[in-house]
Amino acid sequence: MAKTKSFKELVQSQAKADKAFAEALLREGVDAMLSGDMETGKTILRDYIKATVGFEKLGEAIDTPPKSLIRMFGPQGNPQAKNLFNVIGYLQKQAGLQLHVTG
Question: Which domain of life is it from (predicted)?
Fold first, then answer.
């Protein structure tokens, strides 16, 4: 029997292969957080980070240890606003996006 991929692996491989999908993932993660669903937002952004820049490169770019970032986006993580905005700012820049909040 063939081994099947987990949903997370499927999402990450799709994000690696499809720029539009990756951009939608970033938008959805930020939107979930702004809507008050931090758990879903962290999960989506964690998958996005793993599929795109990776925690090592992200940590170097924003001067934060990768292990701290992994914890921040983990199930028990509680990111501080400053750290979260640094991450989102860097991810937008890397993706060539500018996300805007509208009412």
Answer: Bacteria
